[in-house]
Design brief:
With 346 residues, the chain is an all-alpha fold. The protein has one domain: Na+/H+ antiporter like fold. The chain has 16 helices and no strands. Helix 5 crosses helix 16. It is globular, with a radius of gyration of 19 Å. The N and C termini lie far apart (40 Å). Keywords: Membrane, Transmembrane, Transmembrane helix. It comes from Siccirubricoccus soli. This is AbrB family transcriptional regulator.
Length: 346
Amino acid sequence: MPTSLPLQLRTLAAASLGGALLTLLHIPLAWMIGAMLGTATLAWNQFPVAVPSWARPAGLVFLGLSLGASFSGPVLTAVMAALPVMLVGGVLAIASGLVVAQLFTRLAGTDQKTGFFCAVPGGVVVMAVLAQEAKASVATVTLAQTMRVLVVVLTFPPLLGWLAPHGDFTDFTAAGIATWWPGLLAMAAAGLACALPLRQLGLANPWMLGPCALAIGLAATGHLPSAVPKPLVDAAQVAMGATLGTRLTRSFLLSSRRLAIAALISSAVLSLLLTALGVLVAWVSGLPVSALILGLAPGGMPEMALTAKALELGVPLVLGFHLTRTVLCNLLVGPLHRGAVRLGLL
């Protein structure tokens, strides 16, 4: 597939147009969803699409800085106080995937091992790596996990924006600061330097986690030099949405129709199950319902953190839930799979 500059510019133009149109319609997470749909429209109609390889990592660097900037000292304290609830939420999300794996396996006709890694909401990259280690079908897991992220991205932002109660996020809200471009550029360079070793270690989402950790440290100690302006966050959304949209080619969606339908149905069931668990955990813990629904949502960490930011639903709390789940997936999914096999559950 050609990756010339004109092709990349055409793809980004379609992505930006889609984002702008959805912004005019006041759709939550408009720039990412619109960019995804705009790029997917080209891909579905068999036009070549391409996004510069640096676009998504660059967007994630600034997104990580923006998310980390919301962790002032008091906010970080409040998030750490909620850590037991985050651990419970992570375990519930993984266990829910185990339940839904049975449904996915029947619908998709895969072996049970592959079905398990397709259903657990642990992120596309994380689950693909774990599937490879377990000798499951990596291609099938990648497709199913990608479809799940797409389902969540297209449904959770508008539904939460229109239906969910907002709640009190005072404890998880930091005071805003002004943008100072020299400080922002220095943070971006330092964030990139933090991301590179994480990438060498094979960690999922290094481009976001490295800068995010840097910004959390600066914000929590009162040394944050600059905010990240909204246009840069919007540009990050476009880069992420366009990257997702390039995957939605006609061949991708139609060549594995049964698998796509299974992923769609199981993702919907998993979303409903985790939404119900989110409401229950919120009721028990006293934390805001909308943040718990988004914290347990089976979407990717960058996408769900962006949704929280766009809807002002306690970014640090939601990000904390997804960071905790990512860690637990790396620690528990492998042993859980082996234990389920021994017990005859898979």
